[in-house]
Amino acid sequence: MNRKLLLMVGICGGVMLAGAVGCKERKVVVVREPVPLQQPAEVILVPEAPPPAVVERRPPPPGPGYVWVSGYWTHQHGRYVWVPGRWERPPHRNGVWVPARWERTPHGWRHIPGHWR
Q: Do residues 72 and 98 make contact, with C-beta atoms less than 8 angstroms apart?
């Protein structure tokens, strides 16, 4: 029994040593901000094009550092519905808002949600 245990320890040690010899320099990554996890976006395909964008009147920002997130058309229950714009704080420094858009495909119009970059 002791022989089997010693044999297993020897094999495991050899494997670990072989891995360490072949390892390259390791890099340490420090995350200072939480990384938001995004749910996969639902793919919406609609046969008709969305209406023209609504011209919105922006209220004053609620404070410094806010970015205007423009409104967009979404499709719910068989019709287009306007989602109004709003002021938001970027989730990280130098965050840039990429607006939602609709893109024509061979199978209909596909909604691409807005997101922070």
A: no
